[in-house]
Amino acid sequence: MKINISYPATAMQKVIDIDDEKKLQNLYDRRMAQEIDAGVLGDEFKGYVMRISGGNDKQGFPMKQGILTNTRVRLLLAEGQKCYRARRKGERKRASVRGCIVSHDISVLNLVVTKKGDAEVPGLTDDSVPRRLGPKRASKIRNLFNLTKEDDVRKYVIAREFENKKGKKVRKAPKIQRLITPLMLQRKRARKADKLASVKNTKAEAAEYKKLMAQRLAEQKEARRSAISKRRSSRKSQKQASA
């Protein structure tokens, strides 16, 4: 079985091949997210504590958290679930995944170092891989350099310099996202002004409509009153004529 060990503090990984069944017995029947004493893997890992983060079986099917079995099962998976990438919107598919319990069928087991031991492990803890890219979002750059809102974030963005194919030195920096610029504030003020103007216009139209409705209602009442008075006067004239 291959053991893929990663150490987040140095961003390094190391793969070791273990054929000794006595050492592997200490890993069997363990679940994902469980921590183990790495001293069982060899004396070089004495004092180390590692967490099981996953693995693949001999046919390449991945382990899935929450499936309490050491065999392979077929699950109906949807978009957003682990071990499945949806091709179409709303698509679901029955796919084979391995349970979260380690067994002898696992070919590669992934471990993450959570506690470092006393001795250094060559290729894992003795060196570090620097991050190639820095933060891109304005708020994260502020947090990294402990800046205030008045400081210009653009001066602190992490850029890299390299030579292109023509041999010319080029400086490349990420485009800062969520950067507050005067143009952005102007657009925000314009949106607010449009909203206030819309509210004011709606109120004016509502008042005008209310006034028009009151006028129409008054006209209808006047017309009804005049019709009633005409009817009464005609009845009186008919009675006088008959008398």
UniProtKB/TrEMBL annotation:
A GO molecular function held by the record: structural constituent of ribosome
Any one Gene Ontology cellular component term annotated for this protein: ribosome
Keyword terms: Ribonucleoprotein, Ribosomal protein
Claim: Oxidoreductase is one of the keywords in the record: no
Annotated segments matching region Disordered: 218-243
InterPro entries: Ribosomal_eS6, Ribosomal_eS6-like, Ribosomal_eS6_CS
GO BP terms in the entry: translation
Matching PROSITE patterns: RIBOSOMAL_S6E
Compositional bias per record (Basic residues), positions renumbered to this chain: 227-243
Entry similarity comment: Belongs to the eukaryotic ribosomal protein eS6 family.
Descriptive protein name: 40S ribosomal protein S6
